[in-house]
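note to self — DONT lose this again. spent like an hour looking for the file last time. sequence + predicted structure for the chain T wanted, 612 res
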Amino acid sequence: MGKPAVSLPPSVLAWIVTVGAVLLGVVALTNEQTADFGPRVTVFLVLAALGVPTLAMRAWRSAVSWPARAAIAFVAVAAVSAALSTAPLIGFFGANQVGTGWLFLMGLAALWALGTDLETTGAALLGRGLVLLALLNAAATVLEVGGQGWSLLGSFVSHFPGMQFGIGQPAGFAINPVYSAQLIVGGMALLAWRAAPRNPWSWWVMVGGLGAGTYLSGERYGLLFVAGLVVWVFVARRGRAAVAFTVAAGGGLLAGLAIQSLVRLGTSTQFRLYSSEGASGAVGPRLRIWIASLHAVAAHPLFGSGPGQSESATTPYRTAAAIVRDGVFPDTHNILVEIAVTTGVLGVALFVAWLVPAFRHARGALLLYAVALFAGGLLEPLNLTATGLAFLALGAAAVGAFERAGPTSPGSSIGATEWGPAALVATRVVLVVAALFAGITVMVGNTELQSGLTNRNLATLASASNRLPMWDDAPNALSDFLAVEGQSNPRYYQLAVHWDQVAVARDPVDATAWRRLGFDEAALGDFAAGQSALQRSVTLDPTIQLTYLNLVETALARKDPQGALHWAQRAQELFRTAQFSSLVTCLHLHDAGTPTQVVNACLNHPASSSHP
């Protein structure tokens, strides 16, 4: 009779990964332009650095060698896509405050591999950490909703780093309510896996709390997936376990409804569950952007348009009226469509070749968690936290594949003979140090950016621009402040044009940067160049109303009244506003006047000569 198996405690790596997973969903600073971006970039990069050596080993020889090889091939194709794209800097780094470029895609592969290195006890610890993360987001959601009805609570919430207070729909510790809902429902999935005929009181409290958070997040996806979990529990657990989960989850949803009703008595809080857009308002724009995405893939079939650049890839295949109606889509709101648009047919084929066997090897509660987050990813944009944790959980759910392979199987442990533990530790240390340096640089740069914007300090903004040479946020801010000074001293407009050119060189598809450049060039008297830049802005994003006013003014300066009327009429057709109706009428009435007379008569609105 063999000895009973000894359950080893979670490893140091498992504790690091679990703490990192929680921080990836909650950590925030108060002095950055976007409170959560820089800190979470740092956490994401550190976790990815830990996983890169694991990915290499898994691809060499392991139970998941084929998905690991497909992941590496996908990352290689994504790098080619970024290099060949219109905006290579955005392709590699992603846009500032978003960060879904090539580094992000490489990080997803590394996080998945890192998850496979946790062993059974480590995977269980990660699961508990993800439940904690879900509870923290649910609690933040309740506090945010309650704070809109009780001023004392609202004062606390508004000063707490990471909470998105005062935006109507609660966002928890996420930048957007959709991601908070994904994390909460992921925690609900982990608790659904634990459902049993007899459950401890803590289980009831946690399921009920997550149910309340799901409802208060205001996202339809959350309610739909909770309903799907109820069905799954009835099929997989049956009997009293299914009834217990249904009662606990239903009770939490009702508690959320009660909290919302109390708050709505005294506030104007709006929830998307009750908004006028309806189901068609949520589905229609997505269907239209997916159709435009098919055209974008056909235009760049092999390598796509570059990571993080689906907006510029799909815009040519959307009408201006559709963009004004549905809004711009920086992401196609579907992970598979996004990968296809940005990395092409070759990229999406390798992505699927990675995911399908990765799911086939996965088992247990963390698989259910990954499914919950991936389901959200079929309707929402890519995100450092939600998408990253989905891949981490998917990798951890494959831990059983190594145990089934047996301890003597080649590559079943990361400490295989091809790569000794000392080399592994040394490699990880070097990569983590590099990740910390990069992450801290992003945090310092964004802190300088926020400080420069708040204090209108040009030197601080210039430092932020130098520290973050891949993004155009600081050059855009410098241009704004210099253009204000340019109204009294034209020399500042020349400096503004310089920073405009820096901005468009870093991100050639930034419509606002092109609008700034056009305005500043026209202010210097170069009306032809100004009009060209403004037309480029309209092509990239036809929803910026100020661009049309600038185009009207520039056309008048070029003694082109018909051109001015054309842009005013086009704006009126798109926006249907009193401002543009009055402008069109005024241009008709003063068509015989001099440019100065027409400008004074028709463009006396402050916005026409501003530089946002």
